[in-house]
From TrEMBL:
Xref: CDD domains: GT4_AmsD-like (cd03820)
Name of the protein this chain belongs to: Glycosyltransferase
InterPro entries: Glyco_trans_1
Top-level taxon in the UniProt lineage: Bacteria
UniProt keyword terms in alphabetical order: Transferase
Length: 435
């Protein structure tokens, strides 16, 4: 049974030891347990919180919002660790606050570049499938029996108050290898329940009820979880993603530039934007499009732009972090996603003072944007509908300003300072129940 009260926070040398435990030929070090003193009046002013992330060194909305949340929690005086299942590069795509401890369970870089040198047994395990692979739950690299063992060892020796999983595959690792009663286990969902196919739903149905809390990023998804798991009641909570206020002044909305950002995959619908702009290019000869991001569809998008005679007006410069300066130079944000669990990029563009045109897809866009009030909503995958909405903004500076001003007000609701209290409330609630 968890008992939260007086304890000494984990020291830096303990964290370093935890990261070494997955090294070649090493036994898991003995982790000094915190000494808990029971009290009927718990104080949660200093919690130890550990986030489990597939790869904190990469790029994506889940990574960005996890870092935003972690920094906000540190600002409140909590002790925060991010356990990254893998590390694949020397520098992260997003800056990591030095007050946040980062533990890498497996450094997959080549040994000459700082990565882990594997033993023969570990090399064999790295080629064997993970327990996740049977149902194709994980679609990212490095999934293997070796990673399973590293995660298991970490979770079995972890000394913390709250463990937070950040996606379904991570949550299932937590369900399989975590220690109920040693720490609270919170499953965050950055997708939405209806998205998951039967093999994944089977695991969710089996394992999620055992978590101390399930946290969704939209009210619609929280409602879906409550319908699927009525017995969980108030264990299900909604806490939206957060994004810091832009450090730059808002865009002046005078540059003839449409901008978007995201993974260059079918989900993000960048091809719809390219085709929509093709309908507008002759009418608005000064306007251009910038699409920031990386992904498997980059070459296809470049080829499509060239085919439509727009190679010199549609730019795909790759990923840039942070994007604040780029948003400031644009006048319209276009988010043509085919589905969007939340849409952090929507809030990011609003915070920078841009009017947003977005696909009317569940769940995030429909909870963030009120059509015609703080943005424009259009059907997904319809270039002609997206072109019509863009035309309204391109031809009407006053409408751009009206929607941009309303969008900035909306974005303030998602600043970490406004959202972090809801995370803290979830953590305090589960710890209080355990105490």
């Amino acid at each position: 049974m968890l008992r939260k009260l007086a304890y000494r926070p984990v020291q830096p040398d303990q964290v370093a030891g935890a990261s070494r435990q997955c090294g070649p030929g090493r036994r898991a070090p003995a982790v000094r347990r915190a000494r808990w003193r029971h009290s009927s009046k718990a104080s949660f002013e200093h919690m130890r919180i550990t986030f489990l992330v597939r790869n904190i060194w990469g790029i994506g909305g889940t990574i960005k919002t996890t870092l935003n949340t972690a920094e906000a929690l540190v600002d409140l005086g909590h002790d925060v660790t991010i356990a990254s299942f893998v590390r694949h590069k020397a520098k992260p795509d997003f800056a990591i606050d030095p007050r946040i401890k980062v533990v890498n369970l497996w450094d997959v870089r080549k040994p000459a570049k700082g990565g882990e040198r594997l033993s023969l047994l570990q090399r064999l395990q790295a080629k064997q499938p993970s327990f996740l692979d049977a149902d194709k739950i994980n679609n990212q690299g490095e999934s293997s029996k070796l990673l399973d063992r590293k995660v298991r060892r970490y979770l079995k020796t972890l000394d913390t108050d709250v463990v937070v999983g950040t996606q379904v595959s991570v949550n299932l690792y937590m369900a399989r290898y975590g220690r109920p009663g040693a720490y609270a286990m919170v499953a965050q969902e950055h997708m939405y329940l209806d998205h998951y196919k039967p093999p994944v739903r089977k695991h969710i149905d089996e394992h999620y009820p055992a978590f101390d809390a399930i946290v969704t990023i939209t009210e619609a998804d929280a409602k879906a979880y409550r319908a699927a798991f009525p017995e969980l009641g108030d264990k299900i909570a909604c806490v939206p993603n957060s994004i810091p206020a832009s450090p730059r002044p808002p865009s002046e909305l005078t540059e003839p530039l449409i901008m978007t950002a995201g993974r260059l995959t079918g989900m993000k619908g960048m091809d719809t934007l390219v085709r929509a702009f093709a309908e507008l290019a002759e009418e608005f000869p000064d306007w251009r499009v910038k699409i920031f991001g990386r992904g498997p569809n980059k070459d296809k998008l470049k080829a499509l732009a060239a085919e439509l005679g727009l190679a010199d007006r549609i730019d795909l410069p790759g990923p840039v972090t942070p994007l604040d300066a780029e948003w400031q130079r644009a006048s319209i944000a276009a988010i043509p996603s085919r589905f969007e669990p939340f849409g952090l990029v929507i809030v990011e563009a609003m915070a920078a003072g841009l009017p947003v045109v977005c696909s009317a897809v569940k769940h995030g866009p429909l909870e963030i944007i009120q059509d015609g009030e703080n943005g424009l909503l259009v059907p997904a995958g319809k270039p002609e509908e997206l072109a019509a909405a863009l035309r309204r903004l391109m031809s009407d500076p006053s409408l751009r300003r009206k929607l941009a001003d309303a969008g900035m007000e909306t974005a303030r609701r998602f600043e970490p300072e406004q959202v972090v209290g809801r995370h803290v409330a979830v953590f305090e609630k589960v710890l209080a129940k355990a105490a």
